Amino acid sequence: MKAAVTLLVLLACAPVLGACGSQGVKIAKSSPYHRGAVLFRDHCSGCHTLGVVGAQGSATSIANRINTNGPNFNIRKEEGEQVLYAIRNGGFSGAIMPQNIVVGKEAQEVAAFLAKYSGTQKQNVPATKITQSETPQGESGGGGKPGEAGKVEQGKSTGGGGTAGPGTPAGGTATATTPKKKPKTGK
């Protein structure tokens, strides 16, 4: 009798349990991205967040973050090649994500899906144009004109890449000087 009741309870729960995990995918089954969405949900949602598949694996705050929390793909936009690199190499750091969590056609489908649906809630942050100047041969540092490595003027650095040293006013502008080169003399 106990076995019959247990079987009856299991059969009654089967439709509910069978639907677990499938309610989160909001991509039409006819979409070319549907299989990638299902694969992402099945293999990646434990560590990554992406609303279109109901995945909530990323931390919601720095206070509750753990080392297995992956990027939030609602915000972070990815291109297909970046996704394939991460899949093959275990993320970008290689520390936590398993390498080759999906392979072959499945990896391609996940990459195409993420390329299409990631970054939909991307935050628009003003961009700052950073130019790179050439470093003459024989000089080290961040670039700029000869003799200007490390020069900081009106809040703009021409290279050097260092931090302000002792005596620099807090929040102020520092000017670092470089030794002057001795003039060349003839023989």
Identify the notable features of this structure and list them briefly.
single chain; 187 residues; mainly alpha; Cytochrome Bc1 Complex, Chain D, domain 2; two-stranded antiparallel sheet; 4 helices; 4 strands; 28% helix; elongated
Annotated CATH homologous superfamily of the domain at 21-117: Cytochrome c-like domain
Helix content: 25-40%
CATH class of the domain at 21-117: Mainly Alpha
Gross geometry: elongated
From N to C, what is the helix and strand string? Answer: HHEEHHEE
**For the CA atoms, what is the radius of gyration?**
27 Å
Strand order, main sheet: write it out: 1-2
In the CATH hierarchy, what is the architecture of the domain at 21-117 at level 2?
Answer: Orthogonal Bundle
CATH topology of the domain at 21-117: Cytochrome Bc1 Complex, Chain D, domain 2
Mean pLDDT across all amino acids: 74
Structural class: mainly alpha
How many angstroms separate the termini?
112 Å
Largest sheet: 2 strands, antiparallel
Q: Return residue spans where pLDDT drops below 50 for at least 5 consecutive residues.
A: 5-22, 148-177
How much strand content do the residues show?
Answer: under 5%
The tally of beta strands, per DSSP, is 4
Q: Helical stretch count? A: 4
